[in-house]
Amino acid sequence: MSEASTDARTGTDIARRTAPLSVVVGAIGLLQNVLVPAIAIGVSGIGGQGRFLLAVGMVVAAVVFGSAGGYLRWRRLTYTIGAADIRVESGILSRSARSVPYERIQDVSLEAKLLPRLLGLVTVKFETGAGGGEDLSLQYLTNAEGDRLRKLVRERRDEEQAAASGDEAVETDTDEPEGEVLYSLPPRRLLTFGLFEFSLAVFAVLGGALQYLDSFAGIEVWDVDLWRDLAEEHGVDWLALDARLKALSAVTGLFTLVLIGMATGVARTFAREWGFTLTRGPRGFRRLRGMFTRTDVVMPAHRVQALVIGTGLVRYRFGWHGLSFVSLAQDAGDASHVVAPFAKMDEIAPIVAAAGFHLPGADTDWHRASRRYLTDSILIDGGLFALAVIPVALFAPPLWALVPLGLAFFGAAAAVLSWRFKRHALDDTQIFARHGLLSPTSKIATRLKLHSVEIAQGPLARWRGYATVHLGLAGGEFAMHGVPLNEARRLRASVLETISATDYSRLDAPLEDGPDQAFSAAQSGFSANLAAT
């Protein structure tokens, strides 16, 4: 066990505060929010001759009041590591207390943005599986305290689970090894990845800056006449330019736009994925990434609910894919944890195997959606445009009727191609689903971890005899559309058979050999029941 968390004299739990440097981080963050408006006021005409004094006053007030408020909040925020839960109390005037039992904590992750990271601070996030604002976090702790707290919570969670299952708690090495490196992103791979992440986000930033310029400097940046007059002052007459020069200017502008988009994509990718490393240790998977905001996430293998293998419109043609784990916890607001953002399939396969899954093989029995579903999709996607041909032909010039007719053709063709690439399969242990024409996405779920199965039919689907099968996952969604009704019922019967034959109390049991053996214990029970039937 880690260091004592109770007072030896009183026997009560010790209430701790976060790092005192949290006050400094909060004050600097508030100063950053005030700095841009202060500069804008200083260079504008607002306030007349006293605008510089007004700008300085805004900065000083932000520092003084931000520091005072931050100090009071820091003094009034405490966290207590109890025997059964972790409690956080906060509030200056109105007090609030939040208590989370250890058994409810799914994951504990560490996050360090640039400024806290420079000061040796981290944010500790406790993922409860509830998502959103229901999760608990502590800002900011020292690196050592964050590591210590994460290890302590893991130990006590295992003790709670062992007590609930009747097993003996196992002493674990808190300084566990890093484990086997399954995937990493070296700089050259990062550069290639960034080239596929084309982004024009820089223009959104420039647009915001121009908005400030428009508001405070009195310059109409979107006034075309202003820029034409400015060009003419420098001896440039756009109307008098040769057609070839105009075309060259347009091509140069387009080429510059592409370069800026690619450079922005590379910069964003380096900032987000720098130092990306995925390791497999005794407790599961550990992922580290980030240049400015460094995150350290641990994902227990037995809590991986499903896999998602996705790609992009262009990168798919070069064989690049991304792998994500669907888990109870969330990753930056997303239900999936990215574990291999840019990899070949032969690099993804070992990670899939380490998570206890397998990729579909050559003998996988794939099924397409119902042909009636295909017919209905063609009529819906292309029929509306086809109906528009009649009024357009009556009230518009003759050639205009070709527009809705062409749209109807492309809508119907897209429905056919989408149907050809939409398929699903079921084997003894897993369910597979694949969809997407230009950038296909595959989902893989193990039958052991499905919580429910639902057959949904709208009026048209009931009449035509097909359905949508929804598979219940604790951390995400899994749906198969247009499944023939008889096959949907067969899928439901197979999944319900798995659910009834699985001992779910063993999935999270902290057995002596590790969490994978707990998963295997539940799986062996299912396999035995399956063999008996």
Describe the structure in brief.
Residues 168-179 have a biased composition (Acidic residues). By secondary structure, the chain is of the alpha+beta class. The protein is built from 14 helices and 21 strands.
Supply database-style keywords:
YdbS-like_PH, UCP026631, PH-domain like, 3 domains, single chain, 7-stranded antiparallel β-sheet, 21 strands, 14 helices, disordered C terminus, 533 residues, alpha+beta
Overview of the structural elements:
This is PH domain-containing protein. It comes from Erythrobacter fulvus. With 533 residues, this protein is an alpha+beta fold. The chain has 3 domains: 15-181, no CATH class; 201-272, no CATH class; 367-532, PH-domain like (Roll), CATH 2.30.29. The protein is built from 14 helices and 21 strands. The protein has helices spanning 22-43, 51-76, 114-118, 143-165, 187-196, 201-216, 224-233, 243-273, 345-354, 371-395, 402-421, 459-464, 485-501, 515-532, and strands spanning 15-16, 78-81, 85-90, 96-101, 107-112, 121-127, 136-142, 180-184, 277-281, 284-289, 294-299, 304-310, 321-331, 334-343, 367-368, 423-426, 430-435, 441-446, 452-456, 466-473, 476-484. The strands form 4 sheets. The protein has a 7-stranded antiparallel beta sheet with strand order 7-6-5-11-10-9-8, with helices on both faces. Strand 17 and strand 18 form a beta hairpin. Helix 1 packs antiparallel against helix 2, helix 5 crosses helix 8 and helix 10 (371-395) runs antiparallel to helix 11 (402-421). It is globular.
